[in-house]
Specification:
With 542 residues, this protein is α/β, with parallel strands linked by helices. The protein is built from 17 helices and 23 strands. The structure holds nicotinamide-adenine-dinucleotide.
């Protein structure tokens, strides 16, 4: 169930206005509306618009969702749930724009991306401020969110090289075969809340530069960054209808899965939603890529460099309040964990939990009240199952933001793999600590876990590192690197239950996902006719 209240448009919103620690001007300036803020009737709580056929249009929907600042509980904007007619109009606009866009020279499409990356840099502060307001992460971390997405846009600027086909001359006498990578048509993207800029930027820049048109559904919890990015894409010269934005939850997602004109879906989010989307869309013959949940482990060998390892564990475990799909969830210590636990707790205690814009904040709130409750319940289940609570962040009170959804860094030790807190993805600032006698035993724990997004080893032994690299069953491996997310010239290669599909996001695989291969065989020769032969043609001489 959505933690966000559903309000009727035109009626009083059921939120309490609280004294804002962010000046009203700031909210106006970084509003989520697609319309420039100075034109809005109200400086706060604007309605988020759809983008259909190049126009930012107000939805006719009567049902809206409040987009809430998780540190202050203020309503930042209202998100109307795109109606079925509006959804159809968005797909129709994308379909209409496709023939001309696919025939636009790739150099022109690349140049739009080149401009887009420049505009994202120009407006990086505005984007980061919006992310901080709607998602809660610290301003510095919000900049990281923008920057990691920007890198994919930069990658898309080189699409011509990436999208090159293959050519073999003279496959048979006077005959050549070559392959062309063609766009699919209308593609769609469904986004999670935790990276409001990066994940939309994993999707539409790659898709449209390949020549597709796109319908994007941002997370209903923080749609603002997508709206700003869409404005920038239009400013960069993306023709009308090439990028469209719709909003909503399950109904909109199901419309995307079912629509005959949508050829491919990129999804990032939880396993519940992802597997539903994968099954429903695949049944309609669509190409689907789903990046889903995770439980990322780090194995710590006693020979690891102490300071660097502890700093890495703390940063990867508690950064972004643990709401990263590559956050570190489990530390498995080989040998005695005690000396490590003391160092960990000491560092974690030193972290500042605060609203994202406050100076010195290390981690902000989690996304919603329900998320906080779920995280706290999972911590309690760990305690009830016999884990040792080394550091408890559940009762934290952040001065000035008493209503915020804060959870402080939490460390549970003596965790075993049968515990609920281990089996479930917690998605909060909670680090589970386990112990193993040998590297093999530690790897066995990791390999038995159903998820396979990322795993790291901390060691000074090359032999241990190589064994880990070869035998670990996770798609993204770190060696003395805690969050091994590859840059976009590689792909995001989660595996096992963390991914469904064949072709990953961005990199070569991203281009392959958004294109299909056509092979052409051509014959140009000036030879006397050999007469009619009904035998299967081969290149073999008989
Ligand atoms: P979520 O699954 O709740 O929502 C993601 C999207 O799916 C949203 O747009 C939402 O509207 C839609 N949705 C949710 N439930 C649905 C349902 N039952 N039917 C149809 N659509 C539905 O995920 P979230 O809470 O926004 O994001 C957190 C999750 O995303 C975590 O599990 C995290 O690990 C995962 N994630 C994975 C990656 C990755 O690359 N592997 C990256 C970021 C986040």
């Amino acid at each position: 169930m959505s933690p966000i209240s559903i309000a009727r448009a035109g009626k009083t919103l059921h939120h309490q206005w609280r004294r804002s620690p962010i000046p009203a001007m700031a909210l106006t300036r970084y509003s989520t509306s697609a319309e420039p803020s100075h034109k809005q009737a109200s400086p706060v709580s604007p309605r988020v618009r759809n983008l259909i056929g190049g126009e930012f249009v107000d939805s006719r929907a009567t049902e809206t969702i409040d987009v809430v600042n998780p540190a202050t509980q203020e309503v930042v904007s209202q998100l109307p749930l795109t109606t079925s007619d509006e959804f159809k109009a968005a797909v129709s606009a994308a379909k209409g724009a496709f023939p001309s866009w696919r025939n636009t020279p790739i150099t022109t499409r690349q140049r739009v991306m080149l401009k887009l990356q420049e505009l994202i840099r120009r407006d990086a502060d505005k984007l980061a401020m919006n992310i901080m307001t709607e998602q809660g992460k610290t301003l510095k971390d919000a900049h990281g969110d923008v920057f990691r997405g920007l890198e994919v846009v930069e990658h898309a600027c080189g699409m011509a090289t990436l999208q090159m086909g293959e050519f073999v001359s003279n496959v048979s006498s006077g005959i050549d075969t070559y392959s062309i990578r063609e766009p699919l048509g209308v593609c769609a993207g469904i986004c999670p809340f935790n990276f409001p800029a990066m994940i939309p930027l994993w999707m539409f820049p790659m898709a449209v530069t390949c020549g597709n048109t796109f319908v994007l559904k941002p997370s209903e919890k923080d749609p603002g960054a997508s709206m700003i990015l869409a404005e920038l894409a239009m400013e960069a010269g993306l023709p009308n209808g090439v990028l469209n934005i719709v909003h909503g939850t399950n109904d909109t997602v199901n419309n995307i899965c079912d629509d005959e004109d949508i050829k491919a879906i990129s999804f990032v989010g939880s396993n519940t939603a992802g597997m539903h989307i994968y099954a429903r869309a695949a049944a309609k013959g669509k190409r689907v890529q789903c990046n889903m949940g995770a439980k990322n482990h780090a194995i710590i060998i006693p020979d690891a460099s102490i300071d660097a390892t502890l700093n890495s564990l703390v940063a990867a475990g508690f950064g972004a309040a643990g709401q990263r799909c590559m956050a570190l969830s489990v530390a498995v210590f080989v040998g005695d964990s005690k000396p490590w636990l003391e160092g960990l707790a000491e560092r974690a205690k030193g972290l500042k939990v605060n609203a994202g814009h406050e100076p010195g904040a290390d981690l902000g709130p989690v996304i919603g009240k329900q998320a906080k409750e779920r995280i706290c319940n999972l911590i309690q289940s760990g305690v009830d199952d016999g884990a040792t609570l080394i550091l408890d962040g559940r009762n934290i009170v952040v001065s000035g933001y008493e209503g915020g959804n804060f959870v402080g860094p939490t460390i549970l030790a003596d965790v075993t793999s049968n515990m609920e807190c281990y089996k479930e993805e917690i998605f909060g600032p909670v680090l589970l600590c386990m112990q193993a006698d040998t590297l093999e035993e530690a790897m066995d724990i990791v390999n038995k876990n159903k998820y396979g997004n990322g795993a790291s080893i901390f060691t000074t032994s090359g032999i241990a590192a190589r064994k880990f690299q070869n035998d670990i069953e996770a798609g993204q491996v770190g060696i003395n690197v805690p969050i091994p997310v590859p840059l976009p010239f590689f792909s995001f290669t989660g595996s096992k239950a963390s991914f469904a599909g064949d072709l990953n996001f961005y990199g070569k695989a991203g281009m392959q996902f958004y294109t299909q291969i056509k092979t052409v065989t051509q014959q140009w020769k000036d030879l006397p006719s050999q007469g009619v032969s009904l035998a299967m043609p081969t290149s073999q001489r008989t």
